[in-house]
Amino acid sequence: MSAKAPGSAEYTGWKSIVAKYQTPDVGISVWQIVNSFGGLFICWVLMYFSLNVSYLLTLLLAIPAAGFLVRIFIIQHDCGHGSFFKSRRANDIVGTVCGVFTLVAYKYWRKQHAIHHAHHAELEERGIGDVWTMTVDEYFAAPWWKRTAYRVFRHPLFLFGLAPAINYLVLERFPIAAQPEWRNGEKASVWWNNLAIAAVITVMSLWIGFGTVVAIQLPVILIAGSAGTWLFYVQHQYERTYWEHTPEWDFTLAAMHGSSFYRLPKLLQWFTGNIGFHHIHHLSPRIPNYKLEECHKENPLLQRVEQLTLWSSLQTVRLALWDEQRRRLVTFREALQMKQARQSVAGSASA
Q1: Are 72 and 101 in contact (CB under 8 A)?
Q2: What is the pLDDT of residue 345?
Q3: Which of 6, 173, 184, 219 has the smallest CB count inside 10 Å?
Q4: CA 141, CA 135: separation in Å to the nearest integer?
Q5: Cα–Cα distances in Å, from 27 out to 31, 34, 47?
Q6: pLDDT at 6
Q7: What does the alpha-carbon distance between residue 175 and residue 243 come to, in Å, rounded to a whole number?
Q8: Three-state secondary structure call for residue 54
């Protein structure tokens, strides 16, 4: 027997609740741009001078620099949702500039992310803007090579180590996820972003040397990429998350039960632009990142969600397959044990 699915009726009235938080504050938005880009530039300068002391010090400085880069990505993210400024033009300009630093083309990513929000946790719509997730039945029905590929993909060393490097340094350089119906501008934004990145690298290389640019920026990109991948993963991949087939899929439940409240220490919450309040963000993407916490704290109705801490979130890395019968993510070992148990019961019944 399958577990009972949650109901959306318990969140009746949420649209009127979130409406008051959807207006951006230009002063706060501009200050976020200043402190995020300013922090990154300061870290770059310190990293440059640290090369004369020790590269270990350079790598240590890459950690806060990566934090500022994650924060810049959050700004790009808000611009993509049209929530950072009231003006669409202002959002597009700032988002495009952010994309040069994050190595992610703004318009191309915006399209992918819109698909993620429109179909998050919908089993029939997996494949764009999400983490590859198979159901238990799909996994055991798949050929051996696909099961092997899936196990490699879901291994923490690959998912949070190698995969981010491949994604941001290689895959994001090409519009490989683009669908035929996408606008040409969305696909072309990848090439324009590449051109802008190449121009910045060229100018900086002529100034301080290509090797120095790589020594400074590569660890920042790798650390930020891994952190960003972890955040995206843990916001949706936890034991009692939500997945549903299209006929029964519900937007409200996908937001409130399929997106976590990741309660982070204040410093990490600041660097990650409050994205830990991910249930609020999925419920209303038009809320600027700096109003997510306020919306959460002021409305008990919106606090009925899965809460993860740094410690509890580490346990999610073992989860790999969606069990449709028990309505939760399970480990490979749990899935195998359930399969063996069913086979044993079937064998006894036929004996």
Answers
A1: yes
A2: 73
A3: 184
A4: 10
A5: 6, 11, 30
A6: 58
A7: 27
A8: coil
Say what the pLDDT of residue 127 is: 86
| Contact in structure between 327 and 40 (CB atoms under 8 Å) | no
Q: Which residue has the tokens 């399969």?
A: 339
| Whole-angstrom distance, CA of residue 39 vs CA of residue 42 | 5
- Phi, psi torsion values for 245, nearest 5 degrees: -75, 155
E strand or H helix at 229, and its extent? helix 210-234
Q: For residue 105, which amino acid is it?
A: A
Q: What distance in Å separates the CA atoms of residue 134 and residue 150, rounded to the nearest whole number?
A: 8
The dihedral over CA atoms of 243, 244, 249, 252, expressed in degrees to the nearest 10, equals -20
Q: Are 257 and 305 in contact (CB under 8 A)?
A: yes
Q: Which residues of the chain, if any, have pLDDT below 70?
A: 1-7, 346-351
Neighbouring C-beta atoms of residue 7, cutoff 10 Å: 10
pLDDT in tens, 95-117: 999 999 999 999 999 999 999 99
Count CA within 13 A, CB hemisphere, residue 74: 33
Closest CA to 269 of 283, 252, 285, 289: 289
Tokens of 175: 């519009």
Question: In the prediction, which pLDDT does 347 show?
Answer: 66
Q: Hey, what are 330's tokens?
A: 């399970």
pLDDT given at position 97: 98
Q: Closest Cα partner for 68 from 30, 40, 101, 49?
A: 40
Q: pLDDT digit string (tens) for 41-81?
A: 999 999 999 999 999 999 999 999 999 999 999 999 999 99
The answer to whether the pTM exceeds 0.85 is yes
